[in-house]
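It is worth pausing here to work through a concrete case rather than discussing structure prediction in the abstract. The textbook approach is simple: state the sequence, then state the predicted structure, then interpret. We follow exactly that order.
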Amino acid sequence: MSLPKYFKSILWFADFNKVSLKKDRDIVLFQALEKGRMEHLKYLADKLGAKAIYDFARKNSQKFSRKSILPFAKVMFGK
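Step two, the predicted structure:
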């Protein structure tokens, strides 16, 4: 599944034409939470579900540069 063009800004380091949400799910989620805007996260919530975003943030919370990402994900996507 290819991503909308606006994801290119947060996946600048990758060959965007080869990035796939299915194949590169973890990288896309990480970059969206770490560097993305709400449009990135809304798209991912529509495609993967809000729970998938929160579960990913919870599982990878120690890898993020900001401690505020997990509380943000809990408020926005946790249940």
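Step three, interpretation. DSSP finds four helices and no strands in the chain. The longest helix spans residues 25-35.
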